[in-house]
What we know:
By secondary structure, the protein is α+β, with helices and mostly antiparallel strands. The chain has helices at 11-16, 37-46, 66-73, 120-128, 155-159, 208-215, 227-236, 271-280; strands at 20-24, 27-32, 49-52, 57-62, 85-92, 98-106, 111-115, 137-140, 145-151, 176-181, 184-189, 198-204, 223-224, 284-291, 302-305, 308-318, 325-332, 341-346, 349-356. It has 8 helices and 19 strands.
Amino acid sequence: MAVNLKRTPFYDLHVAAGAKIVPFAGFEMPVQYSEGITAEHNTVRRGAGLFDVSHMGEFEITGKDALAFVSYVTSNDPAALAYGQVQYSCFMHETGGIVDDCLVYRLADRVMLVVNASNTAKDWAHVNRYAAKFEVKLANVSDEVALLALQGPRSQAVLQPLAPGVKLDEIKYYHCVTGKVAGVNCIISRTGYTGEDGFELYHGNRHATALWRALVRPGGEVKPVGLGARDSLRLEMAYPLYGNDIDDETTPLEAGLGWIVKLKKGDCVGKAALEAQKARGLERKLVGFVLKERGFPRHHYPVWVNGRPSGEVRSGIVSPSTGEAIGTAYLPYAVARPGTRFEVEIRGARLPAEVVETPFWKQGSHR
């Protein structure tokens, strides 16, 4: 491992659990444990799995203009949030390209932005670029916050005994409360990126080991899950991954994320560019597809439409849940609809693929 890679407070616990550690977004992270990616994937689909996502970044926004500032630098409308509510959103360039996708938490005394680990420094620079226009204070607390994601249909059942003072059943999807889990003060958020019910637990680094050990017990029901299964789970739900499905050169409208763009809320970064794109019409759109022959559609594999090159596979796997080879790609807008046939080039051979409705996995337990 490179000496400049960071470690989350759970690193030693991952090693002790037999994790395969790989470099990811500047951190040494577990890609899988001894049972393997497919087994971990199925644990989350059927039971309860625990992810270390402490590499994610967290920014806290306070001050009189906190909500107005967040509204200006994100695409969605945080003013629509009640206290304790969470919102999926994104940062945009003036060109409309996506700087990063993020979560917006409206808390009683602040707004918290949760960003991707690979983009934390870029996002921090981006939001600070606009801070002088508002009466706000920004704090990057990424190195102080640990984050565990407990995901799967059994999540509430296994977490409730550890949080006797919290009525987990009353926490709605994309809402959060503060409370104690195994005696540790947490923001308990009913969110996740797997398509299953679950909770994300934000807490101080010094309590990380105690919380992990309370959840992952020898012979217990909760199993640790690595980054490999995290990717296959999110792709089955067609949730975008920054750097694959979305990036600086793609807009939310092209990526099928128009639902997180609120152009009527008032001014925001990138608004004019999106209004112009909407007026002239989209040239391409992100779609989900299934290969019609045996193959593995990996990231960067060429895509062909009507005999012409049309970009590349953005994300691709053989789905552990469906057994199908699935993926995403940007196709010309005129043909970006279910039923369209095109080709994916794999090792020199062009295999037939078909655009399908997403998500690929439609039996998730999230609510």
